[in-house]
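Can you give me the bound-state structure? Components:
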Amino acid sequence: MATKILRHILRLPSSHFMYRRWESSNTKVAVYDPFANKPKKNKDTYLEAIKMFENQDNRRRGHVEFIYAALARMKEFGVHKDLQAYKALVDVLPKGKFIPSNIFQAEFMHYPKQQQCAVDLLEQMEDNKVMPDSELEQMLLNVFGKRGIPLRKFWRMLYWMPKFKNLSPWYLPDELPNDTLELAKMAIHRITSVDPTMKIEIWQTEEIEACIDKTWIVSAQSETQKILLSEQPPDEPLVVRGPYEVYLKEQVVTYFTLLGKVRPEHKDDFDQDDVSNLKKPSGIPGFIGQTTLPVVKCTVHEQDDGTIVAVCATGSSSRDSLLSWIRLLEKYDNSVLSNLPVIFTLTAPSNDVVVQETQPAAEDVKRVQN
Amino acid sequence: MSLLKTNVITSVKYLRSFSVLCRKSNQDHHLKKCPILFNTQRWLFWERHRKGGYDTTIKTSNWEHLKNGLVELKHELKLFAKELKELYDMDPLLIARPGEIDLLWCFNSPTVLEKFVTTCDSDHGEGYSSCNLEMSPAGRALFHGYLDTRVPKDGRIKKAGYCAMRSKMQRKSFKRASTFDWHLYNTLVLKVRGDGRAYLLNISTEGYYDITWNDIYHYILYTRGGPYWQVAKIPFSKFVLGSKGRLQDKQTRMRFDKVTHFGISCGDKIVGKFNLEIEYVGLEFDPTHDEEFAYEMYKTDKYIVAV
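Here's the bound-state model for the whole set.
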């Protein structure tokens, strides 16, 4: 019997008595959600709902629950990247009441629910890459005082976030354009930035009479690539590879590459340590060694899975638009394409293809003719 | 007595404590038999599990252990012989050649991939991401998968969405733990071909004490995307110290002789496929880079930082 009673006592969570205070607010109470039935979901209505909450009760009861509800609905209203919305939420917290007045309060997390709520708010800002400013710092200081946990979080954010903000070597604006053509231009510009002589051109497929798919093509080709393409032997086919994806923040752009044959590595038999026959070339004073460039100049385009001859993105990513791309390349300065076979290795047409295809989905060789 | 003990242990088990000041009891006792991991205990001063409660040990019988041991004995002896030979040769690398890259891993054969382990949140039922490390069509390592930030609705997990690859533990013969020694170098060099996403480079420097078990130095690897390879050279001085993914207030330089793991992870909160092709990971000594640590290390006011 005694063991039974003991077991019963021990079965109770040990925190039950000590931490009853924390658990009391865990009980699920249906909270009135002022955001649920807003007809229009935008920033104005969001701020309006916050104002309504502030005005309906000057003691602001249930503000922690309100802030959590508001944080969860931010994405819905499209304000999750808006600093002003976060500031409006911090403004809901009463000023002065939560500032600890002695060291014990400061050390033992004065008003823990409220502090945790503010920390969660800041965390959501951090996740959405919203940089806080000094006004928010002042607001938090007025609410929690300088010993508050949210202030520590805030200072950490203000210390680290600017350090990482502009770290990416490929600059992207804060707001990406909505236009797919603009996005494609940015993406192609980014992925071809290895070669500074790269020329990006925008073509319309209407220029080719036989085309079915009327769309745009962003094509990139440098002078070097033109030379590499012209050296392609006529019996070896070019390959169109893709679709590949490139991310610009959340946006995805599909692109295709035109690959030539793998070029042999340049072999330099010149023995650099051989000093038996040193010649000083005329015209370059003080220079010892070879002055002529190697026969096969190594470029970034020659990779060991093929030589990249051109890169493109099209409006529909369909096979027909790619065929138009090859024809447009031929039209603009790549006359060698008229007698080169081109293989299209698109495993399956991408989902936004408009054109009806009759060919089998496997590899199909199309001889480009004009 | 034994009864009392077990009961205490079970009642402790269902008590989640994030710190001494904030505790919460698990109400989901019905999940007891569920294979989902419960053990998110974090006491303030002491950590029980090296893996933070994620039990990844494969349970084998003693007989299996014996059999596996005999199979591995051959391999270990070979390793031991190699170590002895190295000791006899006494030919350590004393100076790094500036401008030359010493490769840690050159991903040109499937055997190199076996030195890595991939992890994602769906492995522990904490999310829906998936990832894989395979050979690419170009004959390199391809770390690819699908990143999903959906959170499982179990009321326990707040965020999800990560995929990671990490090198296996560095070890000497007979399963003795060892570390990398990178003190000759000051730059990490990677040749990669990415998809425009940002990846995180992780260099773990696990120590002996429990507070250092989760020390990882992070830096971001931005990828250009596209068909061209890119070589990223990142000085070690730029790496920031984090523990369990949180940047630490008190930053310190990396201990180059205590590096235990190297890893790359993808967790940039962008839902979708990711592809990172890696040709090599190497180390270089760059004499022009004399920065020791890129971040401020001045003293701040009391009770503000690292409390």
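A couple of observations. Chain A touches chain B through 53 residues (CB under 8 Å). Chain A is about 35% helix and 15% strand.
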